[in-house]
Amino acid sequence: MARNGQQPIEELSVQELEHLLYRKKRTERRLRLRRLHEMGRVVEVAHLPAPDHQGMVASPALQAGFPHTTPPPPGLGRRLANKLLLLVEVTAVIGLLYVLFNLWTTQRELNQELAVAQQAEAIGLALPTAAPTPVIDLVVLPTGHRYIEGRSPEPIESGDIPAHLLPVLQAYRPPPIPTPGPEQARVIQIPAIGVNHPVVLGAYDWEQLKRGVAHHIGSAQPGQVGNMVLAAHNDIYGAIFQHLDQLSPGDEFVVQTNQRAYTYVVTKIEIVEPTDVQVLAPTNHASATLISCYPYRINTHRIVVFADLVTDTNGS
User: Fold this and answer.
1) CB burial class (10 A; 0-12, 13-18, 19+) of residue 183?
2) What are 174-223's pLDDT values in tens digits?
3) CA 209: distance to chain centroid?
4) Which of 178, 223, 224, 282 could cross-link to 262 by cystine, CB 3.0-4.6 Å?
5) Count of other CB atoms within 10 angstroms of residue 280
6) Per-residue pLDDT tens over the stretch 150-181
7) 236 - beta bridge partners?
8) In the chain, what are the domain boundaries?
9) Superfamily assignment of 145-169+181-314 in CATH?
């Protein structure tokens, strides 16, 4: 029930009820003391303040009838703690925003890369691939030898080779010959100069060059991206590449494997120094390089025939 327009008792909290009861008892006590004082039975010796009930908060209706005491401000330690907590909260929010921004940036970059990959695949472009392993592990080009009338040929280790390269050349040991695979070159045919000979692995191995055209270990396989290096002698062991200088740009030759036949077309021919090993460098397309000594029986230089893959057909 509401009293004098104030808040109904049923709606008051326990704290407000306690405060109201305290005020009522205090008023009754003061009235009782006043009557006793008027009767001369009580002498007031000192003014004692009423007890301070901290933590009792009255409703607006009670505050209108009773004096309100403002709680004391928090201490310095409490204020510092509040500021520190606020700083931690602000830092956490900034860190969260930074993480979200990084996630958004990373997702955008991944989406862009995926879009590029999908576009490249759609238009048939090949994505960048790792560069082939360089085959320039020599200081001079293969097939070099000294030709002396009436004597067995022998590899060149002096004369036309610069003195500072001789120790490296003499210390060179051909890499081990791997087991030939089904895509290994088996036969080379050059119709323009009548070449139809077997191909073996080991372009700088003296014994392998006795057996035919040597495929430099580490260079590209037939029909594959890269530079396929083939070498043979010009005046000994069949003189297979004696007439390379008779080829012209546009001439074709075929390299056969156990499975396919690959056709290459000559693009240019150069006469280079034995130390011009850059002709062995890998390429970013399917190509071939034919190498032999030059001139015939003098062998102070190398003749190099460059060619590119034209097509391939199924071999029998």
Assistant:
1) middle
2) 666 666 777 899 999 999 999 999 999 886 666 777 888 989 888 999 99
3) 42
4) 223
5) 23
6) 555 555 544 456 665 556 555 555 666 666 77
7) none
8) 9-63, 145-169+181-314
9) Sortase (2.40.260.10)
